[in-house]
Amino acid sequence: MTPPIRVLIVDDEPLARERLKELLADESDMAVIGECRDGVEAIAAIGRERPDLVLLDVQMPEPDGFGVLRAVAQEQQPAVIFVTAHRDFAVQAFEANALDYLLKPFDRERFRLSLARVRERRRTGAMELDSDLIERLESLSQRLPPTSEPYATKLVTKVGWRMRFLRVEDIDYLEAEGNYVSVHLGKQSYLARETMNALEAKLDPKDFVRAHRSLIVRVDRIEEVEPLPPGEFVLTLRDGTKLTSGRSYRARLQRALDLPS
């Protein structure tokens, strides 16, 4: 006998989670293994429970649905049905990327169509997400309207197979490192599975400044600035760390640090 499809529900709205549980109760081959209220809970639950399917809200606090997928290791990626309240471009983008979505409010018939697609993917052994999904979703997430909490207070990073949640207020600077971003807190550093552009969009520009294509610095950590002839700056942080800015980011630094032109 085929085991049931193990489903994780992720939505920050309690009524939405209840609605999904009610609909799944009528599906004999589906088993709800848990529910999560935000992205942090979702990342932990996916790593711990390894669900076959996640019903994933797009917009949630810290991180959103796209951030959840970027934080989950590729080999742990489940099948996903996105839940969204956004019409027009969002729906078109999901269709173009061959991903399924549920547009709130949705009816039972539309929900069952999504489940039928999941069953077909399971039958053909194609439950995993595409390897290039993260990049495609990131381009879409940057077009969505902001949530009520536009700037993150935590970032998700990797420590081996585990995930660590860092407080943004503790971060000194972020530096690109291959396909990851190295997040520095004092003498410690952790890898975040996101691009510099995605992380910059999450950080409050009052607190952080992009100083180079590969560098974002917390403003209040900068203790000294030394101009260099080509238009660059050497930034000395409180702990003595020295970082070099890029020429094209000179004006940003001047504004952020109130430097003369």
UniProtKB/TrEMBL annotation:
Entry keywords, A to Z: Phosphoprotein
Listed InterPro entries: CheY-like_superfamily (IPR011006), LytR-like (IPR046947), LytTR_DNA-bd_dom (IPR007492), Sig_transdc_resp-reg_receiver (IPR001789)
PROSITE patterns in alphabetical order: HTH_LYTTR, RESPONSE_REGULATORY
Ranges of residues in domain Response regulatory: 6-119
Example GO molecular function: DNA binding
Cited Pfam families: LytTR (PF04397), Response_reg (PF00072)
Domain HTH LytTR-type intervals: 155-259
Keyword Phosphoprotein: yes
Residues that bear 4-aspartylphosphate: D57
The protein's name: Response regulator transcription factor
Native organism: Myxococcus llanfairpwllgwyngyllgogerychwyrndrobwllllantysiliogogogochensis
